[in-house]
Amino acid sequence: MPANRTSSLVGREGLGGPYFLLSFLHPETAQEARPGQFVMIKAGVSAEPPLRRPFSILEASPERETFTLFVKAIGPGSSALVLLPIGGVAQCLGPLGRPFTPPADGSEALLVGGGYGVAPFSFLGTQLARRGGRARLFYGGRSAADLPLLARLRRLGLDVVPATEDGSVGARGRVTVPLEAYLDTAAGPRLYACGPEAMMHAVARIAAARQLEAEVSLDPWMGCGVGTCLGCVVRVQGEDDARWKYRCACTEGPVFDAARVVWPGDSESRAHQAAGGRS
Amino acid sequence: MNLAVELAGIRLKNPLLAASGTFGYGVEYEGLIDLATLGGIVSKGLYLEPRDGAPPPRIAETPSGLLNAIGLQGIGIRAFVEDVLPRLRRHDTALLVNVCGDSVEEYAEVSRICDSAPGIAGLEINISCPNVKQGGMAFGGDPRMTHAVVAAVRGATRLPVIPKLSPNVGDITVFARAAEEAGADALSCINTLLGLAIDVETRKPRLGFGTGGLSGPAIRPIAVRMAWQAARAVRIPVIGIGGIASGQDALEFLIAGCRAVQIGTANFVEPAIYDRVLAELRAYLERHGKDDIAEIVGTLEYPGEARECETGGSP
Hints:
The complex is a heterodimer of chains A (about 280) and B (about 325). Chain A is of the alpha/beta class. Chain A folds into 2 domains: about 5-95, Elongation Factor Tu (Ef-tu), domain 3 (Beta Barrel), CATH 2.40.30; about 110-275, 3-Layer(aba) Sandwich (Rossmann fold), CATH 3.40.50. Chain A has helices at about 25-30, 75-80, 120-130, 150-155, 175-185, 195-210, 270-275; strands at about 5-15, 20-25, 40-45, 55, 60, 65-70, 90-95, 110-115, 135-140, 160-165, 170, 190-195, 215, 235, 245-250, 255. The longest helix of chain A has 13 residues, at about 195-210. Chain A starts with a strand and ends in a 5-residue tail after the last helix. Chain B is of the alpha/beta class and about 325 residues long. Chain B has one domain (about 5-55, about 70-195, about 215-310): Alpha-Beta Barrel (TIM Barrel), CATH 3.20.20.
């Protein structure tokens, strides 16, 4: 059950540039959160900016009753959060949303994170590893500066394959290049993607072509986080639906089966054809 | 200290209602907040049939505001009555249905279904949604159509009928009077203001529908002015709506002449807002030596003749 409460900042770590790790005291989220879930959070009680922001949960510590967010300060909501002093308060509602589905016993999990979309995969990767599963994280960005979590993820014991478009760290090119190379050798892994829409769409296409199961974590603007404003809908085709329906990313997602998402401009997807060509 | 108010035959334990479209069907907040804290809940807009709503993106944050074009996505009145209402009725709060229609007949039919459903305290008639192509503003932007819809609903139900008026008109008092003449029991003032936000990089609207309805603190002074104008123009009570996020905001509407208020966009920002606003209202009454919230309603001391003299021009 999500809880809505005032939550104080108990830790802040700058990762260079606009990137920060922020830890908040929030017992319910710390204890109940599962990988892929998120919180709706807003610094202080000021009128500006009006809305809370959704953030994936990077890590949760039930012992300390805290959770940690990976924040890129790019707008007024995220900037206000990173400017909070230690002990400063935020309004926080969580944990929210549908988490990732763990892979079937024994099969490998391939996590594909683009930019700050890597956030949920620290949680997912470490949890899978703790349960004896196999996980590999493909972490992409424009350059090394866009992969500020690389060292930390490796310290956590995750098997990380970086890729940058300028080649400053890891493979040169898009993250899907090392992913596809690895898939040529791997047997029946399950894919998980979070990042820019084009990247998630590419992963969805790769999964469909290789008949692999894939989940994506979508990130539309959200108003409420609990399914009342209907602002964050995405086009998704349910198992029994003749055509896609608008579904709230906050309550029915943010994690969706990649094959059921109707991607913008995607004329190949099963869901799109079933929708009679509408997109 | 009494915060209870009577409105169009509906007894509200306090003057705070959740505005339509900002509180879902109410049940979404079960477990998060105590719904009995609210004076009442106005449901998401309901047509006869389920609706898909508008294409995303559907919301855009603007200065102190929220621009939305949800397009009245909804489950339809029958699903509400059968699946949601029994659960919602367990909470001690007044339940109002926001009635939508593409035609006068549809408004009447939805109202008729509500009339025979136990547990509904009143009907808010949505003649002011800016985000649908038919209905909505077609009825709320023409006083003759406003009259026709309200009269048809009036004939279909014994429940209190509360048209929700649009701010996207020249003179709201014309619409307030048309609704009163057609048999309305109260008025909700106001719905969202028509707006447009543009992504300058793509040169496209930020909303999938194009234009949207603006809500939030940005519109509050406009809403207070229009609720005040409407309240002076009619004898039936007015419910004030527009950017309320505090007790002080609610008091502006009450002082302007509204008997109750609705909290809208602020529900997204702070689901537990009702406890705080009620505490602020009590503190205000205590500070001003009042025992009853009704003592505040319509107490605006508006400048009289002095203002008239100054309109000739500034020095």
